[in-house]
Amino acid sequence: MQRISVVVIGAGQAGLAISHCLAGRGVPHVVLERGRIAERWRSERWDSLRLLTPNWMTRLPGWSYRGAEPDGFMASGDFAGYLDAYAGATDAPVECGVTVQAVRFGRRGYRVETNRGTWEAAAVVIATGYCDRPAIPDLAQALPAGIRQVTPSDYRNPAELPAGGVLVVGASATGVQLAEEIQRAGRQVHLSVGRHTRLPRHYRGRDIWCWLERTGLLDERTTEVSDLARARQQPSFQLVGRPDGGTTDLGTLQAAGVRLLGRATGHSGGVLHLQDDLEETVEGAQRALERLLARIDGLADQAGASPEPGVAHRIRVGTAPTSLDLDAAGIGSVVWATGFRRDYGWLQVPVLGTDGEIVHQGGITPAPGLFALGLRFMRRRRSSFIDGVGQDARELTEAILDHLTLPSRVAA
């Protein structure tokens, strides 16, 4: 049994950020990682993936991008190297190849059981990330056995997909990126569209992230939104980190030949059933886009930025079918770009809600000494972004210190 003040689970950006903050306050801790540092960025990302945020936004506590392309978009492998360098520069106490099998209450706080022994700690930080396990709908079980089904975690490139057309389900950031890539590879893509947040890559002379930051939208706190549960369920921004800086949305996909469909609801007899909601869904995204651009316009006008008409043009989708015969359409594979869920089967502490998510207030759970970091809208809207986890980590460190200063909390 090893004893330490704090165990951090996960060595991605969240785990390394909180490690840096804990080290800065002299708190003994260890970071346990099931694979390598930034493992998901290494082994669960497709070949062409680039960050959605420009390099200048790749900021962590005590560390920021200093390369020659601040307005570029880092490839996933390069970002893994970036985190490696961060861990090395901060001398983060990372133990790689350590799989956490159980976290439960212990005599001095918590017992963290792993494949390489047990740790006892006064506090535990769950930093396993928001993108944990692909969320695959029950519909997947009803599809014909001859159709290959993949998730973004195991998709690598179009050449690995079997011959034939491809159905991509989901039109947030991941769905539109994969639909564009597969269509450009000469495959007919059918895109089943659900709720999405449409954004231009650039607006009024700046990358859209610059305006999102300047308007204060990214720093909105949980107390500033009327419906926090809904805010946490907002689909990811429909953006692509393309080297040419271009915008990818349903309009550009449609122009490239992607066939747009409504939400998939079921399957029977080789036919995929679709909801007649495509126009409604696209119109909802349109209204949200117009509200956001109006908010940006007020700030841009004050800054003297040139007007940019036409960015919020309506996307005309027309009448969408209510069914798709998979065989007739030549569908050989389905890509489920339907988001992620968290798997806390190893967490033996009663802090999970009925939805299977950790119950918390700003990363502080009902169990004293158990914390979470890197979750969607945890403290502010940017919480789950690379650029947002740092401030949350600093604030959470103060809560950890408050817990550790209680009598008998600091492990010997």
TrEMBL record:
GO molecular function: flavin adenine dinucleotide binding; monooxygenase activity
Domain of life: Bacteria
Pfam families per record: Pyr_redox_3
Coiled-coil intervals: 275-302
Signal sequence coordinates: none
Keywords: Coiled coil, Oxidoreductase
Gene3D superfamilies linked to this entry: FAD/NAD(P)-binding domain
Listed name of the protein: Pyridine nucleotide-disulfide oxidoreductase
Species assigned in the record: Dankookia rubra
